[in-house]
Amino acid sequence: MQGFTPLAIFLLLSALFSTVLGRTLTVYNGCPFTVWPAMFTDLNVGSARPNYPTGWEAAAYTHVTFTVPDNWRAGRIWGRRNCNFSGNNGANACLDGGCNGGLQCDSNTGTGVPPVTLAEFTLSTASSTPDFYDVSLVDGFNLPMSITPTGGCHVANCPHDLGPNCPAALKGPYDSTGYPVGCKSACQVDPNPQNSPNCCSGSHNTPSTCPSSGVQYYSYFKSNCPNSYVYAYDESSGTALWSCPSGTRADYTVTFCPP
Ligand SMILES: *[C@@H]1O[C@H](CO)[C@@H](O)[C@H](O)[C@H]1NC(C)=O
Predict the structure, then answer these.
(1) Residue nearest to atom 3 of ligand 1 (CA)
(2) Which domain of life does the protein's organism represent (predicted)?
(3) Whole-model pTM over 0.85
(4) Ligand 1 atom, smallest distance to 87 CA
């Protein structure tokens, strides 16, 4: 090893392990109640997925930390509310956000039942392409959430509880005390979701034929949560989809009920 200083060897090993080890994801439950976080990777988009359970129970004010691949694509994390898995592994085991599979979501079909707030990630290893991330309300809202990157990149969030003041047509579901634990999207309650300006479907399936002005209740969600992704083509708002240079190799914290 003549000629290799300990520092050079350390730097070499660091470079080697950083490409292998990926990024650190922390999931913190800041809510004063239990949340059952869930994770899904769309395997139609990419094959890399975290080596971590796809669902777990998070008591109030607890966190977990795990590694996600540098090339994790189309990954999402959300919170499930008021779950009871005893004798029930179906998507209806939770009041909202439930998935097929029970505590751990099925890796092929285990997406969250709306209304559900989503933290979405597509990370990048290519210098020409940044990481993309957002807090999505496209499937409605069920918990305040934030994504905080390291490295000075912008926070994506919906920090407010949109349940209590939710428009009557969208409000709910309700827990046993009558409290609204969600606020549905206009698409979710649309009688004709196959061809609707609320869903950007049918003859409204492009950015120009599906402006935010045609989405009912858009301003309720966007004015309360301006840094979230509110409807299918919300990128034009400029504050929906966030990015972080891949060279930053940011770590991310997902928080339920951020302060
Ligand atoms: C969960 O569901 C089981 C089976 O239906 C029921 O016996 C139990 O009381 C429930 N637990 C809670 C905390 O609601």
Answers:
(1) 86
(2) Eukaryota
(3) yes
(4) 4
